[in-house]
Every structure is written in structure tokens, then in C-alpha cells.
Amino acid sequence: MVGLKPSDVPPPLGVKMASAAAAACVADIVTFPLDTAKVRLQIQGEKQAVGGIRYRGVFGTISTMVRTEGPKSLYNGLVAGLQRQVCFASIRIGLYDSVKNFYSGGKDSKRLNVLVRILAGCTTGAMAVSVAQPTDVVKVRFQAQMNLNGSARRYSGTMQAYRHIFLNEGMRGLWKGMLPNITRNALVNCTELVTYDLIKEAILRHKLMSDNLPCHFVSAFGAGFVTTVVASPVDVVKTRYMNSPLGQYKSAMNCAWTMMTKEGPTAFYKGFMPSFLRLGSWNVVMFVSFEQIKRAMMITKKRIEATN
């Protein structure tokens, strides 16, 4: 047995939400440089956004950023990223089982129809984006801004960024790109959670592994790959649209059409490798952490109840 044993009693909603938020923050800290590299590659077609510097590949992008802007640039927007995960992951992951049970009418989760799982994933993903959208806008803009010597930074701090966007672009600015973001995160959430669910259940059903770290690792890695393939096109449009100056694109659909006509269909898979490296590693760290934190919290809860 590797890691903590699964609890005999299903964890309550509060434990699930807190575990999801904590695990997602851990995963974000570990994989944030890959996410930043992904954003820089995705906006590569916009000359004004990259300052004439060309990025080539995941590690080439990271190397260029460290050389031209310093190592700290890889963690631009981390504060907003952690704020996002506390709001976002706690809802989309923490509420998933509850919403799934609601749609199934309380039936055995191991025999649920795939469509029920997909519907639950899309629902919690859309709910989470509705709450966390401003944090996502600020995170993307921090990751996209360059910190070259002598150049003025677009934003000086996270709270200043929220204030600046609100004063200059209004409330709509903080929720800019919400439609592609809801689409992207509904896709990501249902693909990620449903794939993880199905792979994990298949492994356990066929007794290939026990319900522990190796099983969680394999399930999470598979979920990361499938999610990247499905979500990359919408993710690129979301990043471009969120980072664009006021008036550059009329809408998210206009952004997608401009990309198609000017850069071709391959533009929708710009940054695919960092997206996969990031989502694959993020899923592994997050799901493994989530399972272990959830079990640790249940053990702590039982001990507290035993002493009272």
C-alpha cells in the first residue's frame, strides 16, 4: 500500500471542496512555468504581444523568458492563479460528485451512464468559471506581459490589475472572454473528471491496481492527454481574446475567425506541447494530492470526533 488508505465513509462536501482547492494550488505552483510558456506560445501570432521575440518550443520559451526577463517571469500571475484555483477547483472538482449524484437520482456512481458524468462535469465547470472568471483574466494578462529591461509593465500588482481593468474596461472587462472560457472549462472539466473516473474505475474493476497512488497516477495522466486534445483549440481562442486590447476583436468568434483566416487551422493548436506537459503534470499532481489530502482530512476528522 502506497500512501494513505481510502476512507470507509464518503467524505462530506466541505472536505471535498477544501481538498480540491488545496490540491489545485499545489499543482499550480509545481506547473505554473509550463502554463506561462503555453500562454506565450498561444499569443505568438500577435506581434504587439511578444515584442518581436520569437518563442520556439516549450523549453525554448522558458529559456528565452529566463534569459530576457529573469526567472521570476515564469511565475507572473501566480497570485491570481492561486486565487483562481481556490474559487475554481473547489467548485468544479469539489461539487462534481454531488452534482453527479443529483443528476443520477442517487444511483450507484460506479454504474452511472457516461452522459450523466459528462453533464455533471459540464455543469460544475460552467459554475466555477462564472465565479472565477476575473481571476483568470488577470492571470492570463500577467502571464502575457513582458518584463524587458526599461519597458513599462502593464500591471504592477494583482489588486492593481483588478482595479485597472474595472476602471478602464468596466465590469465587462473582468468577465471578458467568459463565453469561450465557459466552453473551454466545461470541456476541460467534463473530459478531465469523466476520463479520470472511467480509467480509475476500469483499473479497479479489472483489479489491475489497488485504489492508491499508482492507480491515481495512471488515471490522471490519461485524463491530462485526452483533455489537452479536446480543449486546446478553445483554450487558444480564450487566451488570445482575454489578452487582446479593447476593440481588437469584436467577439470570441471573431477572434477564432481571425486566427483561422490569418494563421490557418494549426493556430488552434499553438502551444499544444506545453499544454499537454502542463495538463498532464497538473492532473497527476492535482489528483494524487487531492486523493491524499482528502484521505488525510478524513483521518483528522475521525480523530477529532473520537476525542470529543
Verbal overview:
46% of the residues are buried. It contains 11 helices and no strands. With 308 residues, the chain is mainly α. Helix 6 (114-144) crosses helix 7 (158-174). The chain has helices spanning 13-42, 47-50, 58-69, 78-92, 96-104, 114-144, 158-174, 178-205, 213-243, 252-263, 272-307.
Strand percentage lies at under 5%
- Helix content estimate: over 70%
Shape by Cα distribution: globular
Distance between the termini: 30 Å
Please, how many domains?
1
Counting DSSP H or I runs of 4 or more residues, the number of helices is 11
Kindly state the mean pLDDT as a whole number?
Answer: 85
CATH class: Mainly Alpha
Task: Jot down its keywords.
about 300 residues; mainly alpha; Mitochondrial carrier fold; 11 helices
Summarize the structure.
By secondary structure, the protein is an all-alpha fold.
Write the layout of secondary structure elements.
Blueprint: H1 13-42, H2 47-50, H3 58-69, H4 78-92, H5 96-104, H6 114-144, H7 158-174, H8 178-205, H9 213-243, H10 252-263, H11 272-307
Helix pairs in contact: 1-3, 1-4, 1-11, 4-6, 5-6, 6-7, 6-8, 8-9, 9-10, 9-11
